[in-house]
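> example.struct
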């Protein structure tokens, strides 16, 4: 009898704890607009951006559809949830300088923090812009 009361109490507090914790987790998620877009626009859009005039390597990174599309059988720049398979991660994390992105000759390497932000964002599913009004109404 007593033990089942204790058991119920434990369940109650466990659930309460999870409920309280949940929003804190959600806020920690990498946000495209806040965290990812500034990196892309500083260091990638110059060559892989929305401006069709100067696309390099036939790759655009500004929409989910472009970034996740198949690269002629070589995989995709972004494979949501799978950082190892994402060409983007391979190209920003590798140390052989011929291949690194942004190209070394541009002299604008990604910082470790920026790499980690992109990595986490891909691991979390590479969500692009949420619906603007939805996003807005949730933020203070
Ligand atoms: C100065 C221009 C330039 C900038 C800036 C640049 N890239 Fe690239 N990128 C290229 C070129 C050119 C290619 C195609 C040749 C190659 O694969 O090396 C390419 C290819 C790629 C590929 C490989 C696509 C494939 O099909 O294999 C990825 C992924 C990539 N870039 C990601 C990035 C990311 C992420 C950034 C920013 C952190 C970035 N690039 C910045 C010029 C650029």
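> example.seq
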């Amino acid at each position: 009898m007593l033990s089942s009361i204790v058991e119920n109490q434990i369940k109650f507090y466990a659930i309460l704890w999870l409920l309280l914790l949940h929003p804190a987790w959600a806020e920690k998620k990498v946000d495209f607009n806040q965290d990812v877009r500034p990196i892309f626009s500083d260091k990638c859009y110059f060559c892989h951006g929305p401006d069709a005039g100067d696309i390099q390597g036939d790759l655009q990174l500004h929409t989910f559809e472009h970034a996740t599309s198949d690269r002629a059988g070589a995989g995709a720049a972004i494979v949501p949830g799978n950082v190892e398979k994402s060409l983007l991660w391979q190209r920003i994390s590798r140390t052989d300088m011929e291949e690194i992105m942004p190209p070394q000759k541009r002299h604008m390497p990604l910082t470790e923090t920026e790499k980690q932000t992109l990595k986490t964002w891909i691991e979390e599913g590479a969500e692009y812009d949420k619906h603007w009004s939805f996003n807005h109404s949730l933020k203070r």
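> remarks
Residues 1-29 form one domain.
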